[in-house]
Amino acid sequence: MKLRNMMYASLFAAIVGALGILPPLTLPISPVPITAQTLGVMLAGAILGARYGALSLGIFVALVAFGVPLLSGGRGGFGVLVGPGGGYILSWPIAAFVIGSLVERYWNKMNTARFILFNIIGGILLVYASGVTYLSFATGIPWTTAAFQALIYVPGDVTKAVIAGMIAMQIKKAYPLINKPIEHKKAA
Q: Does domain 3-174 have CATH number 1.10.1760.20?
């Protein structure tokens, strides 16, 4: 692992933490607050790729587990990870990995629409599947009720997917951090 890649992974962990400075928006229908931090999850996967995107969010989740108050509202500690929103947070490294894997696989065909689509797949669908399931388990409410409550997050998360997609496309054009795949020449 190159020092440069480790620094980028740490930088994105810090970016996700910095997005936690924005205060959480708590709604009466769900114990899970709306935050800006999933924007960082999407950016980490789309810009760093699978391995380093997942590493950056793994670092972030580990810091939160050890009590560093990096989550929106100054939250941190193992208790947050086993609380109602824990499934969302614990899915972030996996989400970054999935987004990064899709981006790497289609690197030569990437455009803004694909970045947005991959952010929706990994950063919304996967995170919601994990978060809703965990919320249902942690609170004892039916899965369908938890899923219905999560619908309130969709407009904001789609907006974050679009923003992350546009940023990732600009970075791909200007200063790509993902190594381009080696194309093998066909034998003549």
A: yes
